[in-house]
Design a protein that fits this description.
Length: 129
């Protein structure tokens, strides 16, 4: 199948497919005599894997490791679990940071009159040290 068909089958944008191939997430695919990329079901399967991993917030570097582990049938599941636990820890830290930001912004918004007056605690807070 061509790149457009692979994109449709996997749900991955054509530009991302090219990018994933250029950074080694997707192995270099075969080319037709005319130089067009030719994708197979295995390539689509990898693209779906990458899309799902991205949807779970894994960075590309970690996805590359996951693909390597996925392909290596002699690997232990503990390697995959360790990588996932590390990702969970980072996500939980980010959640706490985002909740803190939302709390500060909620407080500032609640203290802003939102009327015709020029004074605004939101801007004052952003301006201050």
């Amino acid at each position: 199948m061509n790149i457009g068909q692979a994109g449709t089958a996997s749900g991955v944008d054509v530009r991302l497919i090219r990018h994933y191939e250029s950074i080694g997430l997707l192995p270099k695919v075969a080319r037709s005599e005319a130089g067009y990329r030719v994708y197979g079901e295995a390539d689509v399967h990898i693209l779906r894997f990458v899309k799902r991993a991205r949807g779970l917030g894994f960075p590309l570097k970690e996805i590359k490791k996951l693909i390597s582990l996925w392909r290596n049938k002699s690997r232990s599941s503990s390697q995959v679990k360790d990588l996932t636990q590390t990702h969970i820890t980072l996500l939980e830290k980010k959640i706490i940071e985002l909740q803190s930001m939302a709390s500060v912004l909620r407080h500032l918004a609640n203290n802003c009159h939102g009327d015709g007056r020029p004074d605004c605690p939101i801007l004052d807070n952003l301006e201050g040290p």
